[in-house]
Amino acid sequence: MPICSQCSQQKARDAYTKAQLHKTGATRRCKQCVEAEGSQEEFSASARQSEIIARQQEEAVRINEMERQKRSRQDVAERTDLYERASLHQPPPTPTPLSGTLRAEVQKRIRAAVASIQERGIPPDVGLDGFGTQQLAARLWQVSNNERMIWLTIPLLMGLVYGERKINDKFHFMRGEDPNTLLMWVCQYKFLGAQYGYCGGDDIVALVLAAAADVSLRISNGCNALFFAVKYTSAKCVEMLLDAGVKVDDRDFLGQTIWKNALERPTRTL
């Protein structure tokens, strides 16, 4: 009886097809082995097809999720813009003065910040020319003595004290919001003033820049500090950022440049 080259068993002639019987012993295979191989090939092809379909489905889910997140960010941006437009036309609230241990802690940090500022040198042409220790301390206290802004005051003073070690840290006001750098926050002084009574200005921006703030940093939506400055500061502040090397061609997650933000808050000086 012929021997199957695959299963190495002797089998009757009717266990082979005529084509297999005409082959040599080294390549002759019985019907059972041939059919088993065909089934395996069909299974492999089916498995590959299933894998391809699964990958296509995963890719579709990923793309849908990306589109959903993009729409969500667009909705948040639109709602935020409406909120900001309304708030900028409201009279600023009266700051809530600090008290107790928090007041003492802030005053202690102000003294350390003044020493660091004087060591670095006072930025010119931002209203601080000729300021001594008392004047600098008074100005920082004016900005810091607001309980609503303590979330910004402490990082501001720490950044002014420690310079590049702390000045570029990112932090957020409320959980879930995109954290901004200190420079980005102080470049929103008009909005923060209208909403929370913050009284920082170009002088505070200049102090942050002098403390080695990195103008090239961007947040997750692609914005750098200039995106905020063109909406919420002055022409002087924008000029300081440009002198510091900020990029004007960065784009946000929607592909928009700073020009869209600038047109949302058009002023003659800008």
Question: Can you characterise this structure?
Answer:
The protein has 270 residues and is mostly helical. It has eleven helices and two strands. The protein has helices spanning 18-21, 31-87, 100-120, 133-144, 150-162, 182-186, 189-196, 202-210, 225-232, 235-243, 258-264; strands at 170-171, 180-181. The protein has a two-stranded antiparallel ribbon. The mean pLDDT is 85.
Low-confidence sequence ranges: none
Tell the overall outline: rod-shaped
How many separate helices? Answer: 11
Walk across the major sheet and give the strand order.
Answer: 1-2
The structure class reads mainly alpha
Radius of gyration: 34 Å
Calculate the terminal CA-CA distance, rounded to whole Å.
Answer: 98 Å
List the helices and strands and how they pair.
Blueprint: H1 18-21, H2 31-87, H3 100-120, H4 133-144, H5 150-162, E1 170-171, E2 180-181, H6 182-186, H7 189-196, H8 202-210, H9 225-232, H10 235-243, H11 258-264
Antiparallel strand pairs: 1-2
Helix pairs in contact: 3-4, 3-5, 8-10, 9-10, 9-11
